[in-house]
Amino acid sequence: MRCRGKCSYVFIRIEGEDRERLVKILRIRNHRQGEELRKAQFVREASRKEVLRMMKNMVKGILWERGLNVKLGETFIDLEKGILTVEYISDRPINDVRSLAANIAKFLHLRVEFVFVPRQRYAARVGWLGRCGLELCCHTWLKNVPSITQDMARRQYLFAAPDKLTGACGRLLCCLAFEMPYYNEMARRVPRLNAIIDTERGKAKVVEVNVVAGYYVLRYEDGKKEKFKIEGAP
Fold it and tell me: Which of 45, 177, 194, 231 has CA 20 to 30 A from 158's CA?
């Protein structure tokens, strides 16, 4: 087996195998390993891009086997120093990540360093499209991401499934914070949903509130319903 110049990884083909193997040029540690490599057919040197792609796929497979639900971001490799740096995107850091990196390093024959990237930060960096069809606010102009709570969704009469109220980063939509002042103002002009109020026709229950459309609906004791326009609504 011959390698022109200085190369760390090469592709070889072992007799009797159909696929090529990616191997790192190491000092032969035992006689059996040496015999196997001496019989191998040298195919070509591996480029940095090829090595990085295969290393990343191997890391993905190991994480999947361990049941770790994380997405891999940017991956960098320093062939001279023998360091593989892997970004992983998740809601929280992996427990005992150093031990995990050490175990993976045994398979890859180089040092592995994991870098935790929160989902929100990754979404802001990549710039996906939001549910509105526009590029994410946190990528284009929003620098300080506001705190979003479930109470904001409730006060805006949004009762959809949680996955329909979350953005690309997995957090509740920032839109909820932007629209909250409008809903606070409307809340002073419209009765609360399910509230019982006194009217000229007697007691009535608020059965529907649509702040966006600018109306609410009352149901009287006789079962009849009546729609009212919210004062000041567009």
Answer: 231
